Amino acid sequence: MTRPQIGFGAFISPLHPHGENPTLQLWRDLDLVRWLDELGLAEAWIGEHHSGGWGTISSPEVFLAAAAEHTRHIRLGTGVTSLPYHHPFHVASRIVQLDHQTRGRVMLGVGAGSAPGDAHMLGIHPSEQRRMTGESLEAVLELLAGEGPVNRATDWFTLRDARLQHRPYRPGGIEVAISSAASPHSMQLAGRHGLSPLSFASPRPGGTVPDLRRQWQYAEEAAAAAGRTVDRADWRLVVNVYVGESREQALEDLREGAAAWLRGYFGDIVGLPVDALGIEPGREIEYLVETGTAIIGSPDEVAAGVEELYESSGGFGTLLVAGADWASRENTRASFERLARFVVPRFNGSLEGFEASAAWVRENRSEFVTQAVGAFQKAFTDAGVTAPSLPVTEPAGAGSR
């Protein structure tokens, strides 16, 4: 079977349970990005949070600047910069500087902001966030294009003869991605402006699984109306993934952390009615698997889950593993290593040459063995020595050319 070509990375919100040293949590996140770079994963996205106690990174750009010094190849993205929280000039100027500091490895991920406490502290009403996102996005894109001075005025920001001194590091500019959950808004912005959609493929606790095929249609429809096209290869899906030695071991690795995430963060902090879902205490991780919130199991099971997601969505370019801090540091690193060793190669084409070579040798092994034995015996004969008799048996299932 021909497998889809998929890239892999990580989307690190990050969300960390209470009780740990927050300084060390930052270090652990930085160390994880370094580890992902060593493993050869393509991307790491870092989020922005200012309230709630679980999200410990308030400036993705500052974090990514540090991560760039500890990595060599991995692309680094803001996942995401909440546009209503910032003046668009600062968003554009910071990301271009970071683009130069990383020699073109940076990506700008943007969104409306998802934490109600963050918006409240900044005096932003939730009903205004999507409008503000659209207004800011247009200004940021115009500034990044660098085609002339930007003049814009809204009820919350003004740009007067604004232009960036830096231009993006590469001629093609900086890739801009926009996050999407369930509403059409972000996918429509992606299609209208030619951005890379970044969709959350998992439901929130108690929610329904997003209709990913319909989500993509929103982008296609908006792109067509704007005279553009969109490419599924630019579409990123975010989902919780954990690769264990076995499904049973994986579930046990995650049991305590998933319960804390579901009940402690979404239930106690966010206020979602988790208890009303009827989840048996201690079986939270099974609930998350059954509702499609996570792909968990052995390498074979995870690979099958990724293929199923690919088919159900209609196809995408990159899968981003959500960093939810469900497992210990050691087990999280081990899961990503299994992902890189046993799952990623099934989807990036790196095994095709080895599989073809193995099939070719297997198909011709009878002839190869016969030639090798004949050459061995000839060496004895040429030396005037009686060659030992070597049995040549046809391996089971051997073929011939």
TrEMBL record:
Keywords: Flavoprotein, Monooxygenase, Oxidoreductase. InterPro entries: Bact_Lucif_Oxidored (IPR050766), Luciferase-like_dom (IPR011251), Luciferase-like_sf (IPR036661). Residues 25-314 form the Luciferase-like domain. It comes from the Bacteria. It holds the Pfam family Bac_luciferase. PANTHER family: BLL0895 PROTEIN, LUCIFERASE-LIKE MONOOXYGENASE. Belongs to the bacterial luciferase oxidoreductase family. This is Luciferase-like domain-containing protein.
